[in-house]
């Protein structure tokens, strides 16, 4: 397995994972394709993929955020997804480690994320629950 930044040619192999991401609604192919390209072009974001053989078996989307109180930027892991058949094999941990290293390399002071899933996974990696998560469509 190899963790690396995604390339434009990875979209077709990442799309099945994006489609399975637990959002409550399935994204459309066209929206996902545009979003993928936009993220790859974004200087303050990284889309990291875990590749095994010819396939993509997981991905992490992390981006940098300015902060007022952290004495530097923070990083936010927006998405972490591993192929269901490969969960529990260390891919998610490797992707999180790569996302954290990306954040360190950019001078981020901490990493944040919001999830209602895999609480033990994140706690085992040193994450503490510090807030509730809210969202509102615009």
Write the layout of secondary structure elements.
Elements: E1 2-5, H1 11-20, H2 29-41, E2 45-52, E3 55-65, E4 74-82, H3 91-105, E5 111-113, H4 119-123
Parallel strand pairs: 4-5
Antiparallel strand pairs: 1-2, 2-3, 3-4
Description:
With 138 residues, this protein is of the alpha+beta class. The chain has a single domain (2-123), classed as Gcn5-related N-acetyltransferase (GNAT) (Aminopeptidase, 3-Layer(aba) Sandwich), CATH 3.40.630. Helix content is 31%, strand content 25%. The protein contains 4 helices and 5 strands, in the order βααβββαβα. The protein has a 5-stranded mixed beta sheet, sandwiched between helices.
Q: Report the span from N to C terminus.
A: 39 Å
How many helix segments? 4
- Percentage of residues in DSSP E strands: 25-35%
Task: State the low-pLDDT regions, or none.
Answer: none
The CATH topology is Aminopeptidase
Structural class: alpha+beta
Strand order of the biggest β-sheet: 1-2-3-4-5
Helix content: 25-40%
> How many whole angstroms does the radius of gyration measure?
15 Å
CATH class: Alpha Beta
The number of strands is: 5
Instruction: Give the averaged pLDDT, no decimals.
Output: 91
Can you name the CATH architecture? Answer: 3-Layer(aba) Sandwich
InterPro entries: Acyl_CoA_acyltransferase, Bact_Acetyltransf, GNAT_dom
Pfam families: Acetyltransf_1
Keywords: Acyltransferase, Transferase
Domain N-acetyltransferase: 1-138
């Amino acid at each position: 397995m190899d963790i690396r930044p995604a390339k434009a040619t990875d979209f077709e192999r990442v799309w099945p994972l994006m489609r399975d991401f637990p959002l409550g609604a399935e994204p459309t192919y066209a929206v996902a394709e545009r979003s993928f390209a936009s993220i790859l072009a974004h200087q303050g974001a990284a889309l990291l993929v875990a590749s095994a053989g010819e396939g993509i078996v997981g991905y992490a989307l992390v981006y940098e955020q300015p902060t007022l109180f952290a004495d530097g930027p923070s990083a936010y892991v927006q998405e972490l997804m591993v192929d269901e058949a490969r969960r529990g094999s260390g891919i998610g941990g490797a992707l999180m480690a790569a996302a954290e290293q990306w954040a360190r390399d950019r001078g981020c002071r901490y990493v944040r994320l919001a999830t209602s899933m895999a609480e033990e996974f994140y706690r085992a990696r040193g994450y503490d629950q510090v807030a509730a998560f809210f969202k509102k469509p615009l």
